Amino acid sequence: MPSPSSLRALQRRACAVRPAPSCRRYASHGHGPHYNEPTGYLFGEKPLPPGQKRKKEAWENIWYIGMYGTMGVAAVLLYYKPDTSVSTWALNEAKARMEARGDKP
Q1: Cα dihedral 28→33→36→37 (10° resolution)
Q2: Which end of the chain is more exposed for a tag (fewer CB within 10 A), N or C?
Q3: How far apart are CA 30 and CA 40, in angstroms?
Q4: What is the spatial distance between Cα 52 and Cα 41, in angstroms, rounded to a whole number?
Q5: Helix (H, G, I), strand (E, B) or coil at 79
Q6: How far apart are CA 32 and CA 104, in angstroms?
Q7: CB under 8 Å to 54, separation ≥6 — which residues?
Q8: Tens digit of pLDDT for each residue in 4-20?
Q9: pTM value?
């Protein structure tokens, strides 16, 4: 199997002879930063001067209510979830059959 570098060289030569749609590159290599440059600050926010409070953005309260509200609802639902285990069903079934036969459990 030919190496990737030899395949690239072969493709360059073929594209130099006659340009085809398959020879176009749509990547933007080398044109500007590829990611957000690190600033050294947590979440990219510069620390405020002493005595100033951070102003919340409009979406933050909605996020807090949605996130923690959903967690609270999930906790309540999991707490009151019905017991659907096989062992509980088998115990109740055994008790019902024993009562039907007249045995005392």
Answers
A1: 160
A2: N
A3: 24
A4: 17
A5: helix
A6: 82
A7: 45, 48
A8: 778 777 777 776 776 66
A9: 0.48
Cα separation, 93 vs 43, whole angstroms? 57
Provide the Cα torsion 77, 79, 80, 86; round to 10°: 110
**Residue 6: both structure tokens together:** 């030899």
> pLDDT, tens digit, for every residue of 48-74?
999 999 899 999 999 999 999 999 999
**Which tokens go with 25?**
């590159």
Place of tokens 């930063």: 33
| Token digits of residue 35 | 């990611």
In this structure, what token pair is assigned to residue 80?
């009151």
Structure tokens belonging to residue 68: 């923690």
What span, in angstroms and rounded, lies between the C-alpha atoms of 91 and 97? 10
* Structure token digits, residue 8: 């690239």
